[in-house]
Amino acid sequence: MTAGDKLIGNSPSRIARPLLTTTLAARVLRHDLPAAMTTLQFEDGELRAPLIDDPVGAAVAVHIDASDVSIALSRPMDVSITNRLPGEIVEIAALQAPYVRVTFSLGVTRMHTLVTSESVERLALVVGLRAWVMIKAVAISGEDLTPDYSLTPRPWPSDQSSNPRKL
Description:
This protein is mainly beta. The protein contains one helix and twelve strands; from the N terminus they run ββββββββββαββ. It is globular, with a radius of gyration of 19 Å.
């Protein structure tokens, strides 16, 4: 029995996994019908997900469970995980043993991962370390996407039909 276990009768009980999510504002960038995949664009990159019904340009909120996010210390190449984003660890917070929340900065976006303290030690994770977050495309399912009713951003100057302002 470890320090985080609780006794029920004569046997230890499991520690409940913390529920942590990262929510990203994204837009549908394109649909790849032959692959049945959708590409979503967010502030710091793109995510691939199984095909969704929303049209290209639609705003969606993407909810990513921290337990669906893995960490790699070097650029992941020979892995089945489709979504691989570079970032920097900005926070490591011990939760109820054995769980640890590791928060990455991807630029503007903060992405939470849920790992064990054993993984933090084995990988020698520290604040300031550059690493990769990896999210399986199949972990981003239809129930993880909701309409985003936030304001539509202004179009880029090249998208405007009026005369561009001279600099």
